[in-house]
Amino acid sequence: xxxxxxxxxxxxxxxxxxxxxxxxxxxxxxxxxxxxxxxxxxxxxxxxxxxxxxxxxxxxxxxxxxxxxxxxxxxxxxxxxxxxxxxxxxxxxxxxxxxxxxxxxxxxxxxxxxxxxxxxxxxxxxxxxxxxxxxxxxxxxxxxxxxxxxxxxxxxxxxxxxxxxxxxxxxxxxxxxxxxxxxxxxxxxxxxxxxxxxxxxxxxxxxxxxxxxxxxxxxxxxxxxxxxxxxxxxxxxxxxxxxxxxxxxxxxxxxxxxxxxxxxxxxxxxxxxxxxxx
Length: 278
What we know:
66% helix
C-alpha cells in the first residue's frame, strides 16, 4: 500500500470497525502498522499537520479538556473566536456550566485578541445591529462566546430580526446552534456559505457525504483521541458498509489500500468500490 501517515490512519480507522482478530490478519496482509502505544501523542502530532473543517475543532472543544483546547488554539484552522474562547475557559460540552481550566503554557504565554471597538462602544447586540457590511458583522459575531451569548443573540433576533450581514456572519460560525441557523432562514446562498465555512451537520454526515475519502478518514481517525464523544456517530455510519463490502476479506482490504491514495470520492464509495473489485 502507499506508505503515508494519512493512508495508514485512514485504513486503521476502518479496521477498527471489524473484529480485532480479523483486523490483525488484514494488517499483516496489507502491511499496515497497528496503532502504537503512544497513540495520544501521535494523534496530537497528526492534528497539527492536518487541515480540518472548522466543525471538527468545535467537536474537540466540546471535550472541555485543557490539553485538547491548547491543541485547538495552536491549530492553523482555528479562528480568533476559538482562541479567545480557549483563553477565557468558555465551556463547549453539553451540560458543563463552569469554566474550563486553561492549559498552563497558554495561560502564561498567549494573549487574547483585542475586543472589537464596535462591541466596546455598542455592546454585542448593538454591534450586530449596526453591522452594514460583512467586515463589521464578522467582527461583532466573533464576540459571541458560549451558550449564554447564543441565547442572547437568538432572543434579540426573535424580537427584531438582525441585519442580513450579521445573520450571515453568525450562520457560518461552526458553533452556531442549528436551531438558530434555521431561525435565520434557509436561503441557498446561506447554505452554500455555511458549507464553504467547513460547518458540518455531524460526524456521521461528514463520514458519508464528504471527500476525498483518505482525508476524511484520517480526520476521523483522530476522533478516538480528540473527540471521542462524537466519533461514534461516524463509526456507526460506516460500520455496516465496512462489514458488508469488506468484512474479513483480505483481498478487499488490499484493493482498498491500493485505491485510497488516488480516490477522490467519499468513504462509502471507496468501501463499495473496493468490495466490488475484489
